[in-house]
Amino acid sequence: MEISNCTRLLRRLLCGGKQAPWRTLCRRRGDCAAAALLYRKHGDPARVLRCESVQLPRLQERSVLVKMLAAPINPADINMVQGVYAILPDLPAVGGNEGVAQVLEVGSQVSSLKAGDRVIPRDAGLGTWRTAAVFGEDSLLPVPKDIPLLAAATLGVNPCTAARMLSDFEDLKAGDSVIQNAANSGVGQAVIQIAAARGIRTINVVRDRPDFEQLSARLRTIGASHVVKEETLRSPQMKDLFKTCPRPRLALNAVGGKSATELLRHLQNGGTLVTYGGMAKQPVTVPVSALIFKDLKVRGFWVTQWKRDHAQNEGSVNEMLAQLCALIREGKLSAPACTEVPLQDFREALERSMQPYTSTKQILVM
């Protein structure tokens, strides 16, 4: 569907921003529709995604009608559309794994949610790039309405990933340090802020770029202790850095290849390298000496699997979200730099999200 057609479709389906037409239509006829970014085959997102009208199913006893408010474009979303992610929904599928929605109506047996609540997806693969949807009650998690919209829209993936990695692999105390690459990513910015709130220093590695000084200043503004270029990891400057900062016990790798190996070199004995991404599309190479003489540990982390492993223990998930929301209220955790893009302009947002040296997250707003 062309962009102009998508715009007309959105105007027709959004009902002028009012909630009542959706409620009335679904209750009387059970055939209301939503605009959605749909893909019927895997491939280049710019080519396979189309803005289409999708029929919403009739509201069932344990289902929830929601209006999507905002949804980010994350690397995992791109990989899923490309068909190269660990989990792939059945086709045709709606893109997007993260976002925030408002509950419009609930089924007669729904007990945990009510109209007016804000919710985020419990798991990946829900399909958030759409104006409205009917989801099962157990596929949604409530979030407070008093946190900013963009913070809520980006809460479920990056901050959760950062929080778990900072807590689950090393017993970090105030004064300890963490080193990470891709520090300007959504996860990287969350790591900086959560660590700063705990008194943990961060050594933040980013690729060299024309606006390095501006990026460095921005990361320091949100709590970064040190910001260095990839090339600096292999220079004598690191010895000077470690005169005032302890060697890190934890390294967080989203890149792979040589970058990951350099992180390993700077860990203190017994430290842990956690890999949660592979942007370089190169393997993590671990020197034998790092394992034998430094007793370093090499682990992986995927927040989707963590959530699934804790699906029967809602207390741990709710506690994590409550802690993150508390940091947001206190002004200690904010959404990454974002660019809000109307849903009908999704192609522009996709193009920007896949450009190198991207420093802002694209957020689709409905």
UniProtKB/TrEMBL annotation:
Domain Enoyl reductase (ER): start-end pairs: 43-364
EC number, UniProt record: 1.3.1.104
Cellular location(s): Mitochondrion
CDD domains xref list: ETR (cd08290)
Superkingdom: Eukaryota
Pfam families: ADH_N, ADH_zinc_N
Keyword Transit peptide on entry: yes
UniProt keyword Lipid biosynthesis, yes or no: yes
Single Gene Ontology MF annotation: enoyl-[acyl-carrier-protein] reductase (NADPH) activity
Organism: Scleropages formosus
Assigned protein family: Belongs to the zinc-containing alcohol dehydrogenase family. Quinone oxidoreductase subfamily.
SUPFAM superfamilies: GroES-like, NAD(P)-binding Rossmann-fold domains
Main location: mitochondrion
Name of protein: Enoyl-[acyl-carrier-protein] reductase, mitochondrial
Keywords: Fatty acid biosynthesis, Fatty acid metabolism, Lipid biosynthesis, Lipid metabolism, Mitochondrion, NADP, Oxidoreductase, Transit peptide
CC per GO annotation: mitochondrion
GO biological process: fatty acid biosynthetic process
